[in-house]
Amino acid sequence: MGYVEFFTYNYFVNQSSNSHIYQYLLVILVLLIVLLFILKRSKNKSRLKYRDLIILLSLLLVFLIGIQTNDYQKGKAEKGNYSQMIFFLEAVSKKKLVDPETISVNYKYLKDEMVLKINNKYYQVNFNSDFTTFKLEETVLVNDESIKVTGK
Questions:
Q1: What three-state secondary structure class fits 116?
Q2: Cα 118 to Cα 100: distance, rounded to the nearest angstrom
Q3: Number of domains the chain is built from
Q4: DSSP assignment, residue 108?
Q5: Residue 148 in contact with residue 128, Cβ under 8 Å?
Q6: pLDDT (tens digit per residue) in 14-41
Q7: What is the pLDDT of residues 39-78, one digit of tens each?
Q8: If phi over 0 gives left and psi between -120 and 50 gives alpha, with beta otherwise, what is residue 70?
Q9: DSSP annotation of 125
Q10: How far apart are CA 83 and CA 54, in angstroms?
């Protein structure tokens, strides 16, 4: 049987600094290569020599920029979810009078009936329809040995 993954407060705080530096460097490198071939083509008497290579690299550049855009939009949505989760975990820590770093949760976004782990106790979270209020009910996991905590 698999494990149930729980995410800590620190996990959500640390995820906001996620960077895609290697993808940016790859886009810049391909752009520089395309510019280099365009320059070589303009100096070469045979205009057909680098044409296919320039077209191929330009298509690669467009593809990489598309991936960057998709990753940016996905990251922006995740960052919003993580911000909501941080705010929620801080609210729970105030209500339960515990340090937020002692709390972990089994989802990466706010979800009705998700499970919180505070120290060694488990709570089911019930939200109202617009997620502005919540109720914690102590609960018992069937197999609490199958838990993996991420972000310690």
A1: strand
A2: 9
A3: 1
A4: S
A5: no
A6: 875 555 677 778 888 888 888 888 888 7
A7: 887 777 666 777 888 888 889 888 988 888 888 888 788 8
A8: alpha
A9: E
A10: 43
104 vs 113: CA distance, rounded Å? 14
Q: Which residue has the tokens 């296919």?
A: 52
Q: Residue 48: which domain range?
A: 4-150
Q: How many CB atoms lie within 10 A of CB 88?
A: 22
How many whole angstroms separate alpha carbon 123 and alpha carbon 5? 15
Phi, psi (deg, nearest 5) at residue 54 = -65, -45
Q: Which helix (H) or strand (E) holds 112?
A: none
As a whole number of angstroms, the distance between CA 91 and CA 97 comes to: 10
Q: Which two tokens stand for residue 138?
A: 């102590």
